[in-house]
Amino acid sequence: MTSEIKKQTRFKKLSKGLTVGSVMAGSTFLHGPPVLALGLTKLFKQSSKVDETNIQITNSWLKVNNWLIDHVLPELQWDISIDPELSLSLQGRYLMTCNHQSWVDTTVNQYFGLSRMPLTRFFTKWELIFIPFVGQAFKILGFPMMKRHSKAQIAKNPELKHRDLDEARRACELLLSQPFTLLNYLEGTRFTAEKHAQQQSPYQNLLKPKAGGLALALNILGNKIDALVDMTIVYPDGVPDYQNFWLGDTSKIMVNLRKIELPEWILAGSYEDDPEYRQRFQQWIDQIWKEKDQLITEMKAKHMV
């Protein structure tokens, strides 16, 4: 009997894997070429109509992914909590921070946000531009793409630092022509126990935050956004990788959204040029991260009850 159950389980996972893989591949090849074709027209002329159409196509692609979650993973339970003070709209402009544990985080964000918030972009590595369809779509859809330079490279050529900042500034400014959600994973990398130990992180559930990206986004967009939103994701059964998630190994996902109030001083300084402001900004982020760390502990405890 046990052997038979194992066979049935393997068959179910194989069926899910084939279904998800086939539908995702088909959806990507259906939606990808139109986005790329329309994106090429922007080489000659910027057009808000083209941008709107590309967002509609992308949202259609996301709807397919969300349909898969609802129908291929019907046993997955969602525990979503939203701050009453946080009013979300598809026409809003939001900056968002989030803890980062797995590539599944982005899928969770898309599942949650599709019907509640504008299309989510996030800071990403320039190297992703070489991934077929996906990388080019990131660029066309206005994802800020950063070229990461080592301290040694910047010391040798200081202009690299300013070039990267200027590119990020241009990408952020282009978002202002439309509703947007700009996500920043402050930890800069996915959380693992090894990274946590190497950093000697003062937080129980988080890596140390990197404040520079958020400071830049606030400097450019801060007085034009509707809210700074902090999303917290908890996987009570353990952090899944992308494959295991789609094979149905995740039984529950907990999501919390809260509004972060912006102090009056936050938009009145320069993170790059003012050491005192930079220290104050980092202390502010540290306090947000302490609260987030405690929230994760409470969410995990809630699951255990």
TrEMBL record:
Question: GO: which molecular function terms?
Answer: acyltransferase activity
| Pfam family of the protein (one) | Acyltransferase
Q: Which domain of life is it from?
A: Bacteria
InterPro entries found in the cross-reference section: Plipid/glycerol_acylTrfase
- Which intervals hold domain Phospholipid/glycerol acyltransferase? 94-236
Q: Could you tell me what this protein is called?
A: Phospholipid/glycerol acyltransferase domain-containing protein
Origin species, per record, is Acinetobacter rudis CIP 110305
